[in-house]
Specification:
about 325 residues; alpha/beta; TIM Barrel; eight-stranded parallel beta sheet; three-stranded mixed beta sheet; about 35% helix; globular
Length: about 325
């Protein structure tokens, strides 16, 4: 079986939809015009992935201002009128986050319409992304539960409900985005894996967990520089994730100081390895992609390797992101030749 390909999730939004190269960018339209623009942007995201030869595509998260907030706007008990500035990802950077003011409950599907539209407009396998329970906990201000594990388990139940809707419309894989796992290793072991298993329990679609070192923004790049010559977070996390019920583990590898030997700790899981560095505008050559795939091949057979991006590309220039997609697709084709 050949090496497969995908992306972590997000692609840059067109400038006519939202402010470019910005996280939490404000929409530039509203009402029906905004809804139409989101669908048009989704069509472009799907087209660019298909043009690059990506085998499992996403909607590019074109309908979300932010990967966490997009989910939380459909949750009762989360109040966006009470925004709080706080440190997230172990105080790596400050963010304005909504407040949990009461028991959390879904008031409707968060991403079902987006998944249905994307499923209708591509014949390829479709992946949809949802923030994982620990990352949600780390991206809110909790004024109700006052216990991170309890709040995570409450959100895990809502995620499981969301997954049920997504799998019903033909989504091939649902990915939980969990960058917070790398920031809270003790909590990841104490209750993070329990929350992940609760979120994916009995899912009929494939499930994945994405653990990276963050978007290519200054706060994350600076943090990476502080980690030294060997980033050892995955050495602790991959053996834990290997014991969960997920099918795929998605990690950062290209342009990083992640020791490749950690791939041997993934158990029997498929591993989506980042072969595209999202922290630089340098566009990889296909041969660069092959080199990273070959690094993974020392520890994993081709049928368990999925070539991906290190993280989402939402804050990146569109021309750079699309060029990196082409490099990803060309590199995988070369690796499989």
């Amino acid at each position: 079986m050949d090496v497969r390909s995908t992306i972590a999730g997000s692609l840059p939004k067109p400038a006519w939809l939202a402010e470019p190269e910005t996280l939490w960018a404000k929409w530039r339209l509203d009402g029906p015009a905004l809804a139409d623009a989101k669908r048009d942007a989704t069509r472009i995201a799907l087209f660019e992935q298909e043009r690059a030869g990506i085998t499992c595509v996403t909607d590019g998260e074109q309908s979300r201002q932010h990967f966490v907030h997009g989910f939380l706007t459909h949750v009762e008990g989360v109040d966006f009128s009470k925004m709080v500035r706080r440190g997230i990802r172990a105080d790596r950077y400050q963010a304005d986050v909504p407040t949990v003011t009461g028991p959390v409950r879904r008031v409707g599907p968060a991403h079902l319409d987006e998944a249905t539209f994307a499923r209708r407009h591509t014949k390829r396998r479709l992946k949809m992304t949802i923030p994982g329970p620990m990352t949600i906990v780390d991206t809110v201000s909790d004024a109700h539960y006052k216990d991170r594990r309890e709040l995570a388990m409450a959100f895990a139940a809502l995620i499981r409900e969301e997954i049920a809707g997504l799998e019903s419309v033909g989504v091939y894989v649902v990915q939980l985005d969990e960058p917070a796992l790398n920031a809270y290793l003790d909590e990841a072991e104490a209750w993070g894996m329990e929350a992940i298993d609760a979120a994916v329990r009995d899912a009929s679609c494939r499930t994945a967990v994405h653990v990276c070192y963050g978007y290519g923004i200054k706060a994350n790049v600076d943090w990476k520089r502080s980690l030294g010559q060997s980033w050892d977070q995955y050495e602790r996390l991959l053996p834990l994730l290997a014991k969960t019920n997920i099918d795929e583990i998605s990690i950062e590898l290209a342009g990083s100081h992640v020791p490749a030997a950690v791939l041997g700790s993934a158990g029997r899981k498929d591993v989506a390895i980042g072969v595209i560095d999202v922290a630089t505008d340098r566009v990889e050559a296909p041969e660069d992609v092959v080199a990273t795939i070959n690094t993974a091949r020392a520890y994993l057979p081709d049928e368990r390797i999925i070539a991906s991006t290190n993280c989402g590309m939402a804050p990146m220039r569109r021309d750079v992101a699309y060029a990196k997609l082409q490099a990803l697709g060309a590199g995988v084709a070369l690796a499989n030749s």
